[in-house]
Design a protein that fits this description.
Four copies of one chain form a homotetramer.
Chain A (H helix, E strand, L loop, with lengths): L1 E6 L4 H9 L6 E7 L9 H4 L10 H4 L3 E2 L9 E4 L3 H13 L3 E4 L15 H4 L5 H9 L4 E4 L5 H8 L7 E10 L11 H4 L10 H12 L2 E3 L2 E3 L4 E8 L6 E9 L5 H9 L18 E3 L8 H4 L8 E8 L5 E7 L3 H17 L12 H4 L1
Parallel strand pairs in A: 1-2, 1-4, 2-3, 4-5, 5-6, 7-10, 12-13
Antiparallel strand pairs in A: 7-11, 8-9, 11-14, 13-14
Helix pairs in contact in A: 1-12, 7-9
C-alpha cells in the first residue's frame, strides 16, 4: 500500500478523501494535516464529521499535523485553501512528493496538468515539462472546479463535431461551498444566483482540459464558453444545463451514439477510481436528477440526458456529476492514481501499478 | 363593488385569487365554483387552504357552485384546468361575462389578447375583433404562463435594441404545479430538469406578448427563444437566467438605464394591481433571490439583476417574479381591471373605472 | 413619536425590530448600533438584510453607532449578545433609558421583570424595586426565550386547574439561531436534537413568567418543567409539543373553553403590538403548522391545537409562535410599549400613552 | 437461493425490498406483484424508482403479476396496503407461503408474531399456535410500525429497571408516507403535527413487542405509552424524543451500560440482516441526527444518545432508526430470515439455514 497524506483533512473535501480512501486498492491514509487550531488533536477530536458513513477508525486516531510538517508519505492529496496552496503545493512537489491538488491555485499554469483522466490522461506528460522547468523531483497535478466536470465530460465525446460555443447554467449543491459554508438562512427556500469566481473557472477550465497536448504545451480548445452559476438547496450533485453550437451540427442521434460509445482515455483504463461507464446517457424524460443520479458509478460517473434541439444554438442537454466525489476528492484521487500508473512515483520507489491492475 | 366569480377556486391559484381580492378596490368575490367533489360544501369545508394569511371570512361561508352554474357575476376569474377551460371559457364570454383566464387553453388564439398590461395593454383591443368574429357580448382575455412573466417584463424595455435571440433557463418554484402537485419525495434534496409543456410556452408566448397590434392582428416579435425549465425546491418565485443577442448590442449601461426608466404602458396606469415600479433593477451582487425578492411590489413587481456580458450571445442577467401572484392570480386580476378600465364592461352596466381612479 | 435606539441592529432580531417598527404607532427608529465592524457605515451598507420586505428607507441611511455611544433616544431595544448585554444594559438603565431587552443575561434577576404582557403585565411593577434597589432612573425589562413563549401562553389560561408537571419537546426554526447561524450542511435533510442552553431556559423561565408578584417579589409557579429542544429545517416558527399534569385534571372541553375565553392581562390591553386574540385555538386535525400559522396576529399570536388526553400525564397539545416576532423583536417592542403605557417614561418627558390609545 | 415474491413491489417499501435483496445471502427476488395498473408491464416500466442506487437489472425485467397470482416463491414479502393485506396475507399463509408482512393489518392478532428479532425472536413460536388454530401450512409474521422501532430497541435493554411510563414525541421522515405521499406544498418549510393512526400504533405495539411469550400467548409489557407524532422535512430516518419512568430508577451510568452491553436475542444471531451492534450508543452532544446516523449498520442499527435526567419522569433520551430500512423492508426481511432459520420453511423443502450461517 502507498502511504498518502491528506492536507486540509478536516474540511468537507478532506473528509471525502478519507471516506473514499477507506478501502482503496493502492492508497492508505497515513498522515492528516490541517490548520493551526486542529494541530495536535486526534482527527476524531478535530473534525466535525459530516458524512453518513462512519469515520474510518484507522484515521480517527491519527494526530493532526501542521500544514508545514515534513510529511513522509510520497503521495499528497491537497484540499487546501487556495491562498495556502499557492506556495505550499509547489514546495512539496519540489521536495519530491506527488501532489494531487483539488485547489484552484495552480490549475491554469502552463506546465501543470489539469486532469480529468478519462478525457485527457495524456496531459499528465506536462509533469515532465514541470520537472525540467521547475526542477521538481515530485510532481504537481490539479483537479478542475467541480462544475467544470459535468460540462467537460459531456462535451468530450462531441469534440469531433466541432464544439464552438457553449452556454452553461449551473444549479450547484451546498456541499460545494465547504463547512460551515452557506448559512441555512441564505439558501433555505431560496436560490443564490451568484458564486464568487465560479463563472470564470467554468468558462476557462474546459478549454484547457479539452485542449490537446502538442510540443509540451496545451493548445486550448478553440471554443467560447459562457457560464451562469447558481446555488440551489440540494445537498450534493451539481446539475448543468448546457446549450452547444457546433461547427458541423450533427443529428441528435449522432450525439446520443457518441455519448453511448464514449471510452475513457487509454491511459486512464484500469485506474481503481475510474467508473465504468464514465458517462451514462439516460433517456428518462426528467433525468438526470441530483438525488437519484449523483451516486452513479459510486459518485464518479457523469449522467447526461434531456438531449433536444436548441432554437438559439444547436442542441441542449442536462448533465450532472457528484461535486465532492467526481468533482473534488474522487477526482484528485484518480489523478494520483494516474501519476502512479504512469510511473511518476518510480523515483520514490513506488511501483508503476497500472499494468498489474489490468 | 363589482362582483366576481372565481372558477377553480379551491386550487392554489384559486386561493391566491381569493387572498388578493380580500380588500380589492373594485372587486368583491361573490361566487366560487369548483369541480364536482367540492360542489355544495362551503368554501371553508371544500378547500385545504395553504396560504399563511387567514381565509377571508366572507368567502369561507360561500357555497361552492358547479362549474356550469349560471353565474350572476359580470366578471369571471378562471383558474380552470386547460381541458375544462377549452369550452367553458368561450361559453361564458358568449353569455356576456368578462372572462379573465389564467389557463393556457386560449392564449395563442389570434383574437384572444395575451396580456401583461404593463407591457401590452393595447392588445386588449383584440376584444373588439373577438366580439365581431365570435359574437361575444362579453370578452375573453388571458394571462401568460408564470415563467413567461419575468422573461417578458425584463425584455420589454430592451426591445429598442432589437432583441433577436434569447436563451432562458428557469428555476421554478413548487407552488407552480398546484396542489397536491409535486410529491415531496420528488423534489426534496433534488432538481427536476423537466416540466411538461413548459418550455414550448416560454418559447412561444413572449413573441405574442412583445408583438405589436396592427390591423387587428398581433405581429409577433421577430426573435427566437430557447427555454430549459427546471423545478427547484423553492416555495414561491420563479427565477430565470437569461442570455440575449441584440441586433444592435447596447452597452450595459444603456440596458441598466432602460430598465430603470421603464414606464408601464399608458393604458395600464392607475390599475389597482399595477405595482410601482413594474420592474426593479438591483445591483446587489447576488440578487434577485426568490425568498427575498418575490414579494417586491406586493408580489406584482419583477426584479432584475446580475447584468453582465455574455461570451456567447451579448448580455446575460437574472430575473424573478412571484409565480402565483404576478405570474398567475395577480396577473389575471390585473387583466380584469384593464377590461373594466377600458370600458368593456359598460354593456353590463359596469363603470369605466380608470378615469375616476387616476 | 418616541425615539428608539436599536442595539444589535444588523442581526436577525435587530432586523425584525426595524421591520416591525416601520409604521409603529408610538415609536420611530432614530439610532442604530452594532459591533465594531459595522460602526461608521450606513445601516444599508452594514447589514445583510434577510427579510422579504424592503429595508425601511429611513433606517437604511442611518449611520451605525458604536454600542457604547451616548444614545439620545429614551427607549432602547436590545438584541445584544448576552455577554455584551451583561454590563451594557444595566448601565443604560442607570443613565435613564428605558431598556427593553431580548437577551438572556438579566432575565432571571429577581428585580428584573420577565414580561409577556398579555400574561403578566403587572410584573412590570418590579421596575419600582429596581429603581429603589439599583438607583435606576430608567428601567430594564426583559423578553423571554423564544421557545418559552408558546409554552407560557398556552399554559396561562390553564393555571386555574393547577398546572403541576409539564413536558415540552420543541421543534425550533433556524432563524432562532441568528445569522450566519446554523450552517446549511448541518440542518439540510436533518434534525439537530440539541440547542445549547435552551432546555434550561425553557424549564426555568415559565416558572417566573407564570408566577405571581407579591411583596415586590415573584413567587414562582409551583410546577416542574422538562424540556427537549430540537432544531428543524423550518425558516420561522417554533412548534412545541406539550404534555401537562394538573392538580385537578379538567375535562378537555374545559381546557378548550379556557383557551377560547382567554383575555390578555388588563394592563396590556390597548398596547399597539398586542394581537387580538392573543391565543388562537384551532380544532384543525393537523394544526398548528409553522408555515401556515406563524403569521397569525401579524406574528404576535400563539396558535394552539391537537388537544387530546395523554396516557402518561393528563393532556397533550401542540402550540406555536413566531420565534423572531412574538418570540423576540415583537415581544421586546410590546414590553417597551408597556413601560410607556404604565408611565415609566414620564420622568423622560414621555407621555403615558395607553389611555389615549384605548 | 430461496425465491421470494415481493407484493406491493412498486411502492417505496417495495423498492427498498428489492434494493436490499440485491445481493442477499439467502434470498432472490423471483416474482413481483402490484396493483392493477402495473400488471403485465415490466418492473422497469411500472415503477418510478426513487432510490439513489440503480434498479437491480434482474428485477427490472420481471413482469409485474397481479396480487392474486398463484406465486411459486415459498417466501412472500408484503408491502401491501392494509385493506388488501387483510384477506390476502392469511390466504397466502393458508396456501403454504411464509408471509413476512410490513402491513399493520394483522400486527395485533394474538397468534401473529410482531417481531423485532433482535428483541423478541422467541415470539416466532406463535407460528405454531397459528398453524394449530388456523390450519396454516405456511406462516404469517409481521413487522412493527416504523416509529415503534427506535422506541422498542432503545427500551428493551432497560426492561430490567422496570419501564413503567413512556412519553414519545416523534419527528418522522417523509419517506414514511410512501409515494406520492406528502405533497411538497404541505411539508416544505413546515411541520405536520399529525399522522393519522400513528400515535395509537406507537402506544400499543411496544407493549406486545416487549411482552413475554408464556403459554402460547404474549403477556404485554405492563407499561403505559403516550405518543405525539410529527412529520418533518427529512428524507429518511425517524427520530424519537423519549422520556421514561421506571419502577426502580437506575443511575444514568447503568442505562448507558445496559445499552452498550446489549446483545440481540440468541435466536436472532447470525441472521444475515442483523446489524452488529443492534444498538449504537453515542455520547455526541448533538447526536443522533437523521442524515448522519440513519445509515448506521447499513440502515439496520438504532442509534441512541442525549441521555439525561428528566424533571418530570426519570430520564430522557433521543433515538433514531432508518424508517424504510430497519423500520420497514429491512425489518420484514429480517423476520423472513428468522422464519427460515427456525425451520418454519422445512415443509417447503427449505433448509434451516442459521446453523450453516454461524
Amino acid at each position: 500500500m502507498i502511504e498518502v497524506a491528506v492536507l486540509g483533512a478536516t474540511g468537507t473535501v478532506g473528509q471525502r478523501f478519507i471516506q473514499l480512501l477507506e478501502n482503496h486498492a493502492w492508497f492508505r491514509v497515513a498522515e492528516v494535516a490541517a490548520s493551526e487550531r486542529s494541530v495536535g488533536r486526534t482527527y476524531a477530536e478535530a473534525c466535525r464529521w459530516l458524512l453518513p458513513t462512519p469515520m474510518p477508525a484507522s484515521v480517527a486516531s491519527l494526530t493532526v499535523q501542521p500544514l508545514d510538517a515534513d510529511f513522509r508519505s510520497p503521495v499528497i492529496l491537497s484540499a487546501l485553501p487556495s491562498e495556502v496552496a499557492q506556495s505550499l503545493e509547489p514546495a512539496l512537489a519540489q521536495r519530491g512528493h506527488l501532489v494531487s491538488s483539488n485547489t484552484s491555485a495552480h490549475r491554469m499554469a502552463s506546465d501543470v496538468p489539469l486532469l480529468l483522466p478519462e478525457l485527457n490522461a495524456d496531459h499528465v506528460r506536462l509533469v515532465e515539462v514541470q520537472r525540467r522547468q521547475r526542477g521538481y523531483s515530485g510532481a504537481l497535478v490539479t483537479m478542475s472546479n467541480c462544475t467544470t466536470v459535468p460540462v467537460a465530460v459531456a462535451l468530450a465525446p462531441l469534440l469531433p463535431f466541432g464544439v464552438r460555443q457553449v452556454q452553461v447554467v449551473s444549479l450547484q449543491a451546498i456541499s460545494g461551498s465547504g463547512y460551515p459554508g452557506v448559512p441555512s438562512l441564505d439558501i433555505f427556500d431560496n436560490i443564490l444566483p451568484y458564486i464568487g469566481g465560479e463563472e470564470e473557472k467554468v468558462e476557462r477550465e474546459p478549454l484547457k482540459i479539452l485542449g490537446t497536448l502538442s510540443d509540451d504545451q496545451i493548445v486550448p480548445l478553440p471554443a467560447t464558453f459562457s457560464a451562469s452559476c447558481n446555488r440551489v438547496p440540494v445537498l450534493d450533485g451539481h446539475t448543468v444545463v448546457v446549450s452547444v453550437k457546433f461547427e458541423s451540427p450533427p443529428p441528435l442521434e449522432a450525439i446520443r451514439e457518441a455519448w453511448q460509445a464514449f471510452e475513457p482515455h487509454a491511459l486512464a483504463r484500469g485506474l481503481p477510481s475510474l467508473p465504468d461507464p464514465v458517462l451514462i446517457y439516460t433517456d428518462g424524460l426528467d433525468r438526470p436528477q441530483p438525488r437519484l443520479d449523483r451516486d452513479n458509478g459510486r459518485g464518479m460517473a457523469t449522467t447526461v440526458g434531456r438531449l433536444r434541439p436548441c432554437n438559439v444554438l444547436d442542441v441542449k442537454f442536462v448533465a450532472l456529476s457528484h461535486n465532492t466525489v467526481r468533482g473534488a476528492a474522487g477526482g484528485a484521487i484518480l489523478n494520483a492514481e494516474l501519476l502512479i500508473a504512469q510511473g511518476y512515483g518510480e523515483a520514490l520507489g513506488l511501483p508503476s501499478l497500472q499494468q498489474s491492475a489490468t
